[in-house]
């Protein structure tokens, strides 16, 4: 009989334990959880609705979804994909729905249905809550108890890595990902609540993201900013979350914006610029931008000289702000960094240095943008580990 320890009863640990129970009915599976409840985080994911995966539609390259861990996920998604997630949870009694934005939720819109399905799946495992593990040794002892296999699924929090001290592993320093930007700009703040499709980038870097941009009372948020925070997580940590931000308010190249403004000017020569915003730009934002370009509020299109025109093109295509800090996104964040992927065999997630030791979930240096991709990584890696152990 195999004796297996799973350390951490979060998404990856519980999914792995459920798969181990199914594949190795005779095995002794001990699941250690430091907190008082298993799956406490899953219960609050997606604002309590649990965005458990994504259809991946519109994702051109996996690196768009997984800024860290793309190569590993590409390989492991062949083993357990988003469609497999869908089938697994529906088979476990949780009907799912696909939203227009490609995110997948339980039909009930209740994350507890996911929690209950996982707990049913791992019923035969021995779950011990309030049981923080303090050490894992190279000979597979967990706080002094010996196992045939040990699965570490302690999540992204840096303290979950302490138990691995002494295993001589390679680490990638941990920093937060998925946050919004603090921008100190009083007149921008007056536009609070507006949402526009825009492109945002960190000036002087390759980091760039597109999508809805939300103006908030503290600065900028919305999917475009969250994506950018994920792509540039490490760079922004290094700058102390102070960096120049560039906003393209129309998600168009400079020549496209110039052509669009030329069109507006020739169709509306006698109209005031402030009364004729480009399609898709809210009037209040247009007024803010024309003011920033130095145009008089009553100026007509025919009166805008080439200097004013160029300034307007510049503000629309490369408006600049200063990021003054980060703000947590609705209490949601994931960690970039952790156990370096160089430690594990990509096919099995087994530790190269210590056979029998496995890693799954956010403890690994894998993280994603919002949209269900982080939980998909937990299911996929948890599945891969269970399969490796069962087939060994
Ligand atoms: C508020 C919030 C909302 C989110 N919403 C979504 C969403 O809708 N969709 C999505 O895809 N992602 C979402 N995420 C991200 C997602 O929840 C995580 O990526 C995912 O939970 C990671 O799973 P994991 O099992 O690796 O880690 P976790 O779920 O964090 O589980 C790790 C577990 O290990 C335990 N542990 C740690 N150290 C020890 C130890 N020494 N001994 C024993 N136990 C230990 C912890 O207590 C914890 O229970 C959200 C995150 C947050 C914070």
Attribute tags:
single chain; six-stranded antiparallel barrel; five-stranded parallel β-sheet; alpha+beta; 32% helix; 13 helices
Description:
The chain has 392 residues and is an alpha+beta fold. Helix content is 32%, strand content 22%. Helix 1 packs parallel to helix 6 (111-121), helix 1 (11-23) packs parallel to helix 13 and helix 10 crosses helix 12 (306-317). It is elongated, with a radius of gyration of 25 Å. 43% of the residues are buried. The protein binds flavin-adenine dinucleotide. Residues 7-13, 32-35, 40-42, 44-46, 50-51, 132-133, 153-155, 160, 163, 331-332, 334, 361-363, 372-375, 378 line the site of flavin-adenine dinucleotide. The site of flavin-adenine dinucleotide (FAD) has 37 residues, from helix 1, helix 2 and helix 13.
């Amino acid at each position: 009989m195999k004796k297996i320890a799973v350390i951490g009863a979060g998404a990856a640990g519980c999914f792995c334990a459920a798969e181990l129970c199914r594949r190795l009915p005779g095995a002794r599976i001990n699941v250690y959880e430091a907190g008082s409840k298993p799956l406490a985080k899953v219960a609050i994911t997606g604002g309590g609705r649990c965005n458990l995966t994504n259809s991946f539609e519109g994702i051109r390259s996996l690196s768009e979804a997984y800024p860290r861990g793309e190569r590993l996920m590409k390989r492991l998604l062949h083993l357990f994909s988003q469609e497999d997630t869908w089938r697994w949870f529906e088979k476990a009694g949780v009907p799912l729905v696909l939203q227009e934005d490609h995110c997948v939720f339980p039909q009930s819109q209740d994350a507890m249905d996911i929690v209950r399905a996982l707990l049913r799946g791992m019923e035969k495992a021995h779950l011990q809550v309030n049981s923080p593990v303090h050490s894992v040794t190279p000979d597979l002892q967990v706080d002094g108890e010996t196992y045939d296999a040990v699965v570490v699924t302690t999540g992204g929090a840096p303290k979950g890595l302490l138990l691995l001290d002494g295993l001589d592993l390679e680490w990638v320093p941990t920093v937060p990902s998925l946050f919004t930007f603090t921008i100190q700009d009083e007149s921008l703040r007056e536009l609070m609540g507006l949402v526009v499709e825009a492109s945002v980038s960190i000036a002087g870097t390759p980091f760039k993201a597109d999508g809805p941009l939300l103006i908030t009372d503290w600065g900028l948020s919305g999917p475009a900013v969250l994506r950018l925070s994920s792509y540039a997580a490490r760079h922004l940590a290094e700058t102390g979350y102070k960096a120049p931000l560039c906003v393209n308010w129309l998600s168009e190249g400079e020549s496209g914006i110039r052509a669009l403004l030329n069109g507006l000017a020739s169709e509306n020569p006698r109209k005031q610029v402030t009364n004729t915003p480009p399609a898709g730009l809210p009037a209040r934002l247009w007024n803010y931008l024309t003011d920033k370009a130095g145009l008089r509020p009553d100026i007509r299109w025919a009166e805008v000289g080439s200097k004013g025109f160029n300034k307007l093109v510049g503000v629309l295509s490369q408006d600049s702000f200063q990021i003054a800090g980060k703000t947590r996104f609705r209490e949601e964040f994931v960690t970039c960094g952790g156990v370096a992927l160089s430690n594990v065999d990509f096919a099995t997630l087994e530790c190269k240095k210590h056979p029998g030791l496995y890693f799954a979930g956010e403890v690994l240096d894998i993280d994603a943008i919002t949209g269900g991709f982080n939980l998909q990584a937990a299911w996929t890696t948890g599945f891969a580990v269970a399969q490796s152990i069962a087939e060994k």
